[in-house]
Design a protein that fits this description.
Length: 345
């Protein structure tokens, strides 16, 4: 697998992978657009609200094939003769890789279109909780807390928005990822760490937008969905096999302190439940807020909330029970780790 096809026609070009059209550029339906905008991020208790003031978005309607041979092609997309984007297309490890470069250093809004089919189904964009098939929806890709509810039209979500700005939406997720898998037996990954939006609502194409020029676009193809996921996981890397002890019982999610964890462990054992682990997210302490109890986000052992935890961990492990914690990239204002990180730049 991994056969690149390039077809040029009046004013346009089409790229295919293993006979499947993936990129189709026409003057009135361009592959790429470039623009400028200014984003505004508002965060409250880990819930983000993002706004975009889009100053301009220019369709790059002109396409020129600068080079083409058996190894790939170099395409230039521009508007009114002004070069804005070059796309170097090649097959690497059986996948189509499109590397991007631009002479327009001021552009910070980019949009690309991928060929779609009317009855196509789309899955992915990381960990999405509201929909399995993403078709017909737009998915902003940004990490945030979950918020209250996943439907802005519900009363409880509207009230949470009004009082704390904490109402969730269908696309809020802890783990967004700018990639998707298609029922056309294709997978696609936009290599960017910027704020992005994947829009699957148009019957003709998928729109992939990012607030910075992506490094590249990767597209893989296979004959079956199983083979497709094998190829995709080979690209991203696979999770290592879990240790044997995780199969020896359940892992209890508990919080509240050392005494609470040990008491609930004994209750489970007394009921005949095999336990191999305790997962406690609040080992570093809690942060009471107007919106409820959150974690302290200062990733050091809270000795007041979890007294004697070091000894308890050793005793539990001798009994075949592991103690598992939790950590995220946030650092709390006014706490020791933020001060240490700031001092070290």
């Amino acid at each position: 697998m991994g056969c690149l096809g390039l077809r040029a026609f009046a004013g346009g070009v089409e790229l295919s992978l293993d006979g499947k059209p993936v990129i189709r550029h026409l003057p009135d339906a361009p592959f790429a657009s470039a623009g400028r905008g200014e984003g505004r991020f508002c965060m409250q208790h880990g819930n983000f609200h993002v706004e975009d003031r889009l100053d301009e978005l220019v369709a790059l309607r002109d396409c020129e094939i600068l080079a083409s041979d058996s190894s790939g092609a170099l395409l230039r997309f521009s508007n009114a003769g002004r070069s804005a984007l070059e796309a170097r297309c090649a097959i690497e490890e059986g996948r189509l890789v499109i590397g991007f470069s631009s002479s327009d250093t001021g552009a910070n809004r980019w949009r690309f279109t991928i060929v779609a089919e009317d009855r196509e189904h789309v899955y992915g964009c990381g960990e999405q909780f509201s929909h399995l098939d993403l078709r017909g929806k737009k998915f902003p890709l940004w990490t945030s807390e979950q918020g209250v509810g996943r439907n802005k039209s519900t009363r409880v979500t509207a009230q949470a928005d009004a009082e704390n700005g904490a109402g969730g939406d269908y696309w809020w997720t802890y783990f967004p990822q700018p990639s998707f898998v298609s029922s056309r037996r294709l997978w696609c990954h936009l290599d960017t760490s910027a704020y992005a939006v994947f829009d699957f609502s148009d019957a003709r194409h998928h729109e992939l937008s990012a607030w910075a020029l992506p490094r590249r676009l990767d597209i893989g193809s296979a004959a079956t969905m199983r083979e497709l996921l094998v190829d995709q996981s080979a690209h991203f890397g696979r999770q290592p096999e879990l240790p044997d002890w995780v199969y020896d019982g359940v892992i209890l999610g508990i919080q509240g302190g050392t005494a609470v964890c040990l008491e609930r462990l004994e209750r489970a054992r007394a009921a005949g439940v095999p336990v191999c682990g305790i997962w406690a997210q609040d080992w570093e302490g809690i942060n009471p807020t107007s919106f409820g109890q959150r974690l302290r986000w200062n990733w050091e052992w809270d000795r007041e909330r979890y007294p004697g935890l070091d000894g308890a961990i050793r005793k539990l492990e001798s009994e075949g029970v592991r103690f598992l914690g939790y950590v995220n990239p946030y650092l709390a204002a006014g706490r020791s780790l933020l001060a240490e990180a700031a001092a070290k730049g």
